[in-house]
Amino acid sequence: DAKTTQPPSMDCAEGRAANLPCNHSTISGNEYVYWYRQIHSQGPQYIIHGLKNNETNEMASLIITEDRKSSTLILPHATLRDTAVYYCIVRVASGGGADGLTFGKGTHLIIQP
Amino acid sequence: NAGVTQTPKFRILKIGQSMTLQCTQDMNHNYMYWYRQDPGMGLKLIYYSVGAGITDKGEVPNGYNVSRSTTEDFPLRLELAAPSQTSVYFCASISTLTTGNTIYFGEGSWLTVV
Predict the structure, then answer these.
(1) Which of A27, B6, B85, B114 is the most exposed place for a label (fewest CB within 10 A)?
(2) How many C-beta neighbours within 10 Å does residue B3 have?
(3) CB contact under 8 A, B42 and A32
């Protein structure tokens, strides 16, 4: 079973910030939060990851709550090309268990022109 | 680096035929994975490998076999193809030897069994 809960779909206007929530209430202390996206059946693409501090890169920002039970992916200026399914995943980043990433159904983000 | 390379990209098989999906990575990653994705669904793990010579079953291993004779290659074998194996297959790899690492995916192999 996926360790995360995400809304099945969201809409966002082009040029606005897209905020994608994720609940991971059973996250362990050594598990990171990863975000991937998949554009129309292409291979999933890495976006960002974090442990407990907020993170930002050229694609997005990741806000993790202090208790680490939820997080938000922020696409600051969404474009039509950001329309995709976004997956929030938790896992141990190094060593540890031999489990693969468990993908839920993700959030289908639709950017409206 | 080429990353994760999968071949073929598209294939049509007849019921009962066999084939191998190839996956190669040039990043010296120790972990490799095979996933399948049915239309409108998330990815499901078929098999994974934590290193050369070691493989283990994932969530949906029935009808498939894998081997990991080298660090770079992780082929997925379909024996006696069935229509239920029509899907998109993704290979992925990751290094667990450094912290904060990310998983890299191939571009997918579209398989149709008729």
Answers:
(1) B114
(2) 14
(3) no
